[in-house]
Q: What sequence folds into this?
C-alpha cells in the first residue's frame, strides 16, 4: 500500500456549492428510484399475502361445507341432479362462493386503488425533484454570476419553460441542447399538474394534451369513466354528468423519465461548466492530480465532443520543485455496453505520476466520484480512459 497516496486522497475533494448540488441531485434520484421499486415490491407482497389469507380462510369453510354436502347428498332419494341441488343448498355452496368472490374483489379493488394513489404520488414527487433541483441550479448560477433578478422575478407559471428562459436571458447560458429534453419532460409536468390540481379528473379527454401520452403508454396509464354517485338521488343515470379519471396502473411508465432527467441534468452541468469557463472541472482535475505537487495549477481546460461521449483535456503546470513540470491530463468518457476503466501514464521519468496512475487504477473513485460525479449521471455503463502525457 502506498501510504502517502492513501493519506493524500483519504478524505476526498472538499465540496464546492457546485459539487454539493451535483452530488445531492444524483443521490436524490437514485434513492427515489430505489424507494419506488422497494415500495412496489412491498405492495405486491402485501397483495399476495392478503389473497393467500382469503384462500386459507375459505379453504377451511369449503372443507366443512363439503362434509355437509356429503351427508346431505345421502339424506334424500332421487336422481343425481336433485340430490346434488339439495346437498349444495344444505352446504351453502352459493353463499360461500359469493363471500369468497366478494372478499377477493375487495382486496383487488383496494390494491388497484392503493397502487393508483401511490403511483400518482410518485409521479408528482419525481416532477417535484426535477423542478426543485432545476430551480436550485438556476439560483446557484445566479449567485455565481452576481445577477440581481431571480427565477421568481420572471417566472409565474410553467416553471420548466420559465427557468430555461431565465437561464438564457439572464444567466446567458446556451440552452439549445437542453430544449429537446424539456419538450420530452412536458408530459410529466402535465401529469403532475392534473394530479395535484384536478385529482386526475377530466370532464372530457378528447383533444387533451395527455390523451396521446396515455394512448401510447401501453396500458400503463388508462382512463376510467365515472359519474357523480350523489347526483343519482335526484337524477336518472342518463342525466348524470360523467367524467374521466386518469389511472396510473403501472409505475414502470416512470422508467424513461428517470433516464431522461439524468441525461437532462448531465447536459445541463456540462453547459454550466462551459459557462463558468470550465472552473468546476478544472478544480476537480487539480484535486485528482494533486499528488504530483503542492503548487500545481490547471490551465487550458477544454471539453471535446467524441463519439458516444466527451473528452476532458487540460494542462497541469507544476510550479514546485517536483517533477514533471508540466503534463497533459485527459479523461475520455464514452457510453459502453459494460463498465471499463483504464489509466495510462506516458510521461517518462515521472515517478510520482507512475505511482498516481497505479493508485487511481486501483481506486477509480478518485476519477468517477471526485471528477466525474454529476457530469456522468446520464450514463449507467461507461468506458473511462485517463491519460497523463
A:
Amino acid at each position: 500500500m502506498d501510504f502517502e497516496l492513501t493519506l493524500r486522497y483519504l478524505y476526498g475533494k472538499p465540496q464546492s456549492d457546485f459539487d454539493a448540488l451535483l452530488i445531492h441531485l444524483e443521490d436524490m434520484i437514485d434513492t427515489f428510484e430505489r424507494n419506488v421499486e422497494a415500495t412496489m415490491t412491498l405492495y405486491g407482497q402485501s397483495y399476495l399475502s392478503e389473497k393467500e389469507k382469503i384462500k386459507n380462510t375459505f379453504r377451511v369453510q369449503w372443507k366443512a361445507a363439503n362434509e355437509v354436502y356429503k351427508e346431505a347428498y345421502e339424506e334424500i332419494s332421487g336422481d343425481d341432479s336433485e340430490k346434488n341441488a339439495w346437498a349444495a343448498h344444505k352446504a351453502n355452496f352459493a353463499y360461500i362462493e359469493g363471500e369468497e368472490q366478494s372478499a377477493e374483489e375487495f382486496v383487488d379493488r383496494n390494491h388497484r386503488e392503493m397502487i393508483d394513489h401511490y403511483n400518482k404520488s410518485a409521479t408528482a414527487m419525481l416532477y417535484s425533484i426535477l423542478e426543485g433541483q432545476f430551480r436550485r441550479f438556476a439560483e446557484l448560477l445566479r449567485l455565481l454570476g452576481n445577477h440581481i433578478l431571480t427565477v421568481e422575478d420572471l417566472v409565474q407559471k410553467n416553471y420548466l419553460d420559465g427557468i430555461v428562459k431565465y437561464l438564457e436571458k439572464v444567466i446567458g447560458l446556451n440552452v439549445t441542447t437542453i430544449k429537446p429534453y424539456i419538450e420530452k419532460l412536458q408530459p410529466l409536468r402535465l401529469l403532475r399538474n392534473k394530479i395535484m390540481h384536478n385529482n386526475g379528473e377530466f370532464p372530457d379527454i378528447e383533444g387533451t394534451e395527455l390523451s396521446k401520452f396515455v394512448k401510447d403508454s401501453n396500458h400503463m396509464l388508462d382512463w376510467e369513466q365515472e359519474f357523480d354517485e350523489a347526483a343519482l338521488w335526484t337524477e336518472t343515470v342518463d342525466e348524470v354528468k360523467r367524467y374521466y379519471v386518469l389511472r396510473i396502473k403501472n409505475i414502470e411508465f416512470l422508467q424513461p423519465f428517470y433516464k431522461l432527467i439524468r441525461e437532462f441534468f448531465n447536459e445541463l452541468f456540462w453547459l454550466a461548466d462551459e459557462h463558468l469557463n470550465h472552473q468546476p472541472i478544472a478544480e476537480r482535475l487539480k484535486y485528482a492530480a494533486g499528488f504530483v505537487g503542492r503548487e500545481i495549477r490547471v490551465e487550458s481546460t477544454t471539453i471535446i465532443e467524441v463519439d458516444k461521449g466527451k473528452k476532458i483535456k487540460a494542462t497541469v503546470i507544476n510550479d514546485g520543485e517536483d517533477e514533471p513540470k508540466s503534463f497533459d491530463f485527459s479523461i475520455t468518457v464514452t457510453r459502453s455496453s459494460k463498465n471499463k476503466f483504464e489509466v495510462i501514464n506516458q510521461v517518462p521519468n515521472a515517478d510520482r505520476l507512475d505511482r498516481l496512475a497505479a493508485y487511481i487504477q486501483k481506486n477509480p473513485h478518485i476519477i468517477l466520484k471526485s471528477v466525474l460525479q454529476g457530469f456522468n449521471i446520464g450514463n449507467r455503463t461507461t468506458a473511462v480512459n485517463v491519460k497523463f502525457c
The longest strand covers residues 296-306.
